[in-house]
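User: quick one, sequence for these tokens?
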């Protein structure tokens, strides 16, 4: 085993190393540039995962790295808490230019922390306690964010969590209004497109109508754009395509250019003042690294590069190409239920269709289980072996998620579509899939689940 994998198993996460060994996913990535990664054996990969949407600029973007090198040389204080954080002020102003009328920023480092900032803000501003969230929603793994986790497997081992957090179905205004009336919540926290639940795109107008309902019933609409924000869906923020502005916007992941952790919850001065607008409340929220200089400077440069390079427009154009070409190439495949997405957040859903053959017709449950447990991971593994990094959605393994850096080229999109079509062409029936998976598990078992 590679020494880094041995150390990782010994000191960081042995279960993850075992999981990688089950199918033979083991790779140690040593170098990254743009859309390309290289592993310790010199193999090259086209990255269609982009660190779960954190690398919108591509890995080690030369433009960003050039600006970061200059930052490291000017002796600006990294952290001073008794004066004005100059770079937090600059970043706040830049964010506000994009998000008006949201113009007050609560900075943090992880996406989940920014979600918790929004939860605290909503409670303090409304003087209410309950929080509504959606089934399937993913907002982070801290104890606060976990309390609004729409996936039991990730939440249950840590119960009891925050009281008065209530789950409702996604894209369902009737349930929302009923629960707003029943529970009188401080906030409804929702993603514009549910990423980890399998790239679920709600009906047009859902979010705008949800905000109207929230306003009618005295709750704030908190929009979690940690994954969809900063160009990924074809506009700077997904909400721009819905004709409304949320009460609180949460950003993270790509805000730090894929290089440093920076996140933010942005809101209106009025909401912020209601929560924290008195001198004796100035320190009710924050952390040592909220608004840290390097993070804020990298985020500022990232926003500039997204604009200068037109990356939101690029995401729209490449995303349309990806969806159209996938629909042409695999849309009628017997195990492809659909291709969907917005911008460069795209999904291929696997599962039984009318054309799934005898097994699909008589045992759709078997096909469904195989798709959910095995097919997505197997497809990802076969793509990896052909030099493409992609993963199923973390909470929906039958959905292959494609979310490359926004710098991806037309030729790279074509290559990925062709490779997916090639691999899927080997599995127009279930039998060869089960045979190949069985053989692989057998050989991995015999080799001691080698990494
Ligand atoms: N919100 C959304 C929509 C996410 O996809 C994620 C992470 O995948 C988070 C929040 C949590 O972000 P972090 O992992 O930085 O805490």
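Assistant:
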């Amino acid at each position: 085993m590679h020494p880094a994998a041995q150390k990782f198993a010994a000191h960081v996460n042995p279960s993850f190393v075992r999981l990688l060994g089950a199918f033979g996913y083991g790779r140690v990535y040593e170098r990254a540039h743009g859309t390309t990664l290289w592993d310790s054996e010199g193999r090259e990969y086209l990255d269609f995962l982009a660190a779960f949407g954190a690398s919108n600029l591509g890995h080690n973007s030369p433009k960003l790295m050039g600006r970061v090198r200059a930052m490291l040389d000017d002796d600006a204080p990294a952290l001073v808490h008794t004066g004005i954080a100059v770079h937090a002020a600059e970043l706040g102003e830049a964010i506000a230019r994009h998000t008006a009328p949201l113009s007050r920023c609560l900075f943090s480092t992880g996406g989940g922390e920014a979600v918790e900032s929004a939860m605290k803000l909503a409670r303090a501003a409304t003087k209410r306690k309950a929080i509504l969230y959606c089934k399937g929603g993913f907002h982070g793994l801290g104890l606060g964010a976990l309390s609004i986790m729409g996936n039991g497997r990730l939440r249950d081992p840590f119960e009891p969590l925050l009281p008065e957090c209530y789950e409702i179905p996604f894209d369902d205004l009737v349930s929302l209004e009923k629960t707003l009336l029943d529970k009188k919540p401080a906030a409804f926290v929702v993603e514009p497109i549910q990423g980890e639940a399998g790239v679920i795109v709600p009906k047009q107008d859902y979010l705008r109508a949800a905000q109207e309902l929230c306003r009618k019933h005295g709750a704030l609409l908190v929009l979690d754009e940690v994954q969809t924000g900063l160009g990924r869906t074809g506009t700077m923020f997904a909400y721009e395509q819905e004709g409304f502005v949320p009460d609180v916007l949460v950003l993270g992941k790509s805000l730090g250019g894929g290089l440093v952790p920076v996140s933010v919850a942005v809101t209106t001065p009025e909401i912020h003042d209601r929560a924290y607008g008195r001198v004796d409340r100035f320190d009710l929220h924050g952390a040592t690294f909220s608004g840290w200089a390097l993070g804020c400077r990298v985020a500022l440069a990232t926003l500039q590069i997204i604009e200068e390079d037109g990356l939101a427009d690029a995401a729209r154009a490449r995303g349309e190409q990806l969806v159209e070409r996938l629909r042409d190439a695999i849309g009628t495949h017997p195990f492809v239920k659909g291709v969907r997405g917005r911008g460069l957040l795209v999904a291929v859903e696997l599962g039984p269709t009318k054309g799934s053959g005898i097994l699909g017709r008589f045992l759709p449950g078997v096909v469904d289980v195989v798709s959910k447990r095995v097919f997505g991971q197997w497809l990802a593994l076969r793509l990896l072996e052909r030099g493409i990094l992609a993963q199923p959605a973390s909470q929906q393994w039958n959905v292959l998620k494609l979310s490359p850096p926004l710098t991806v080229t037309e030729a790279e999109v074509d290559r990925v579509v062709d490779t997916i079509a090639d691999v899927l062409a080997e599995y127009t029936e279930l039998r060869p899939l089960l045979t190949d998976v069985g053989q692989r598990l057998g050989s991995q078992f015999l080799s001691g689940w080698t990494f």
